[in-house]
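Input for the complex:
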Amino acid sequence: MTDGNDQVLSVRSLSTEFDGEDGALRVVDDVAFSVGRGEILGIVGESGSGKSVTGYSIMGLVDPPGRVASGDVVLEGRRLDLTDDAAMRKVRGNAISMIFQDPMTSLHPLLTIGDQMIDAILAHRKMPKREARSLAVEALRKVGIPSPEVRVRSYPHQLSGGMRQRVAIAIASLNQPALIIADEPTTGLDVTIQAQILHEIQMLVADRGMAVIWITHDMAVVGQLADRVAVMYAGRIVEEGPTQAILDSPAHPYTIGLLGSLLGRNRGKAELPQIPGSIDNAHRLTGCRFAPRCAHARAECEARPPMVEVSPGHHSACILATEQADG
Amino acid sequence: MAAYARRFARNRMAALGAGILLAMLFVAAFAPWLAPQDVYDLSTLDIMDSRLPPGGESFAGGVYWLGTDDQGRDLLSASMYGLRVSLVVALAGTTAALAIGVFFGILAAYAGGAVDTAIMRVVDLQLAFPSILTALVMVALFGAGLEKVVLAIAISQWAIFARTLRSTAIVERTKEYVKAAVTLRYSSARIMLVHLLPNSIAPLSVLVVAEIAAAISLEAMLSFLGIGLPVTRPSLGLLISNGYSYMLAREYWISMVPGAFLVLLLLSINLVGERMRQLNES
Amino acid sequence: MGDRSALLDIAGVSKVYETDRGGFLGFGRRRSLRALDGISLSVGRGEVIGVVGESGSGKSTLGRIIVGLEKPTSGRVDYRPSPERPGARLGPQMVFQNPIGSLNRRQTIRQILTEPFRVHAPEVDAERRAADLMEEVGLSSRFAGRRPSEISGGQAQRVAIARALALQPELVVCDEPVSALDVSIQAQILNLFSRVQAQSGCSYLFISHDLQVVERLSHRVAVMYLGRIIETADTATLFASPRHPYLRALIESAPVLSAGKRRFHPIKGEIPSPVAPPSGCHFHPRCPLAMPRCKVEKPMLRDFGNGHLAACHLD
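Predicted:
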């Protein structure tokens, strides 16, 4: 875990529920993690893992029929009340920013990017518009957009996908946030453009010591970008720890299965190993939610396995890890 | 189906409208058995009973709940039969319009190019004329009568169905399941009927309800003007028209009773249609 | 090129789209978009050709032209299936990117899979064939009565594959068939592709932006940039010794699981728009090794031995 003083965000007991026809569904179930200054935490999961909802919950962006049921969130030493919209407004776009998957939907189509950036600045600080405009141009220059003084007057639809995402990063970093949450920002972008975006993020972290939470389904990106990784399945964190430790010695059957099924791991093999079954109904289980698909499932798995440390800083929520740790 | 009904009923006004509409459909369907008097059988009419106000007593001792008209017809019964005629004519006309509109709409969307342009120009032309004008032209050309009214309704309504269907179908045509059907070398007819049409028809269900109401109104207008249905099978419009001359004599019920039936019918159809549109959008 | 015995032979195919005139009152200049610029390619029987490219490369347009959804503006597309195969007259089939979107949501799975037989082979027992197909792609028969909205992406793609194979085509064009699926499901579907290809002996044209996917399945790979093939070779050679700077940058930029944390050093610049492509070699504005010649002269594909072709002025 990160050192207390350097901790930017600490999350404990975060749970988010969605009301449905069959009662409330826990899409995020008792999640805990922390991120430090200059650190990139990758949250990895597939559909239904709850990774995006986790990001939205921290930002206070969960709308009915969903709601944050519980959560002990501390940002730079101050406790956040995720349900207090007025308080969260001051934090959003200021101390914490978010970048979304599709910049076409997160940017206002009818305003120039200059106007949107000025809005973002003036929402949290008082200054003359001219000053805000030059801050905006500088921010665009910093993310590598050519001729920013001209581009600042463009509309989002006039820019390419990669450029739009850079604008989104620029907007997110305008008010010098302590933390940026990025929700699948490079999914769907070309590989060479993705490399550019990842480069920009790395620069931001190196220059300003920003903390970043990178939410994705792409293990390969996380492997090359993140310092630490949390793997989510059906609303829970099943494993977390330093990136290399997780890639080299995964300690949870889901992580092992996931890594095992990736192309990068199976270059010579005729058949790719695959995880049997599907995620259906896992959210209703109170015990281990991966058990129905796990080859090692036992009677004890009907109780929720605790998170145990398998090596320094590396934790896994599996009964096998508990046994390994014990001896 | 049941779930849809439950969602529908959450709006009290709409539920009330649906109830009234169902009642009226029931009455229209079973009018010959429900109506106290067979208004088409001239032998049952007694001219001495004419122009009795609502609640008036007949010579034979029965009560005319809603009064009688100038020929001694019980207005309650006449209105029930009139409801039946109005609905049958409107449904026939709108169904014909639907058939024509769907045919041209799906053809325009699938064929594209010159065919699409040609059909859409005709649609534009048709929609530029108010339906009453179209109907008047039809009557001027072909005369009055039941079939002519149904035709007038069909001619004035097909265009909106064609255009609405074409809009949806044009979007569906770009989707991958249609491309798959093309790649599998399915015939154009099959692609249009099995693939495009079922996936494009949803917006029409709400439109149909509104157009039925419009058809009822159109027929009522034509009959009121005397160029619609023949006197032998009076629709609500004709009954209203018939009683109009008695308004000055303060025998308002002869016009108002069928008028109230008409208003109630249109109101309930509109309530139901509006609620369906609401549900469709959410 | 020009391989007479090949199943599919494409020579000099170009595709130009004319855009609307725009401008003031519609009097602006008509701009043309050159999606494909002189593509030549051949696919042998039982061969899997991978086509790799990013946005604007024209790879999807190429796929659509091969199956006949679009016509080329110029050039030749020759498809020569063996006449004794039942699927010969049907032309190449396609598996699409959006699994659920490629199925008619008003039909049940059973209807989707019996339809090809009812239309083209009414004499066979369509129900039985459909059941066989479902088994072949690993779909339990309990899905037969379901609609596309009631199944997952992975299951839908299995149905799409079954449908494409129903009449035993000799060539199947797969346009980004696993991009929309979860990572762990991708493994299942790729396994299915391999198995089916081995059993049926049909050829694939596998289009993807993902190098690793293409590397796994293909015998040979063609790399596209802005409407042109810039390099092609058998898979092992292509990835072991890439020649074209763009291909090298592509391989370098792609995140690799085994390599661990690293700094990204991407190539600069955006992928140009096909409406206004750079002169000469399309890649020259972004190429770290560009020479003056590259701006002027379009590089032709040169043979570096063993069927390894690259379009670059460098030696």
